């Protein structure tokens, strides 16, 4: 149990640093930004207390907001995704699965994890870019940002989770 907490804290720190120093500076085609830190929220086990998920995700979003100069956007979006994560995960696991199931390609299978990651990425990107723009005058750019960021985030999550599953 102690090792799991230390692993989560290290993952939190690594994802914050990678997002702040590398991924925030990537804007493919002027609109697609990888938001890899949502993987931290997606990896909470099935039996994790909801308040732990919410507080951890809020702190993650707050750290990202601090480094990205997006006041409250990432924190609000991350907290919303954290509130939805147990319900989204519940769509893809069987009732008789273990209580300490950690979502991943290895535990859910590729197709279920793909859909789980797609829904989480889409929900997060929809809320993130809606809060960031806060208007629909340039809705085409909003759609491009949501679609592009969802796609690149999904690809990164699948690649990293696949590499994690092999070790």
Describe the structure.
By secondary structure, the protein is mostly helical. It contains seven helices and no strands. It has helices at 2-21, 38-42, 50-68, 73-90, 105-108, 110-133, 139-166. Helix 6 runs antiparallel to helix 7 (139-166).
Write a concise synopsis of the structure shown:
The chain has helices at 2-21, 38-42, 50-68, 73-90, 105-108, 110-133, 139-166.
Provide the fold topology.
Blueprint: H1 2-21, H2 38-42, H3 50-68, H4 73-90, H5 105-108, H6 110-133, H7 139-166
Helix pairs in contact: 1-3, 3-4, 4-6, 6-7
| C-alpha geometry | globular
> How widely separated are the two ends?
20 Å
**Total count of helical runs of at least 4 residues:** 7
Radius of gyration: 15 Å
Q: Compute the average pLDDT.
A: 90
The largest pleated sheet is described as: none
Q: Which parts are unreliable, with pLDDT below 50 for 5 consecutive residues or more?
A: none
Please indicate the percent range of residues in DSSP E strands (runs of 2 or more): under 5%
* Oligomer state of the chains in this structure: single chain
What are the secondary-structure elements, in order, as H or E? HHHHHHH
| Strands, total number | 0
Helical proportion, percent range: over 70%
Secondary structural class: mainly alpha
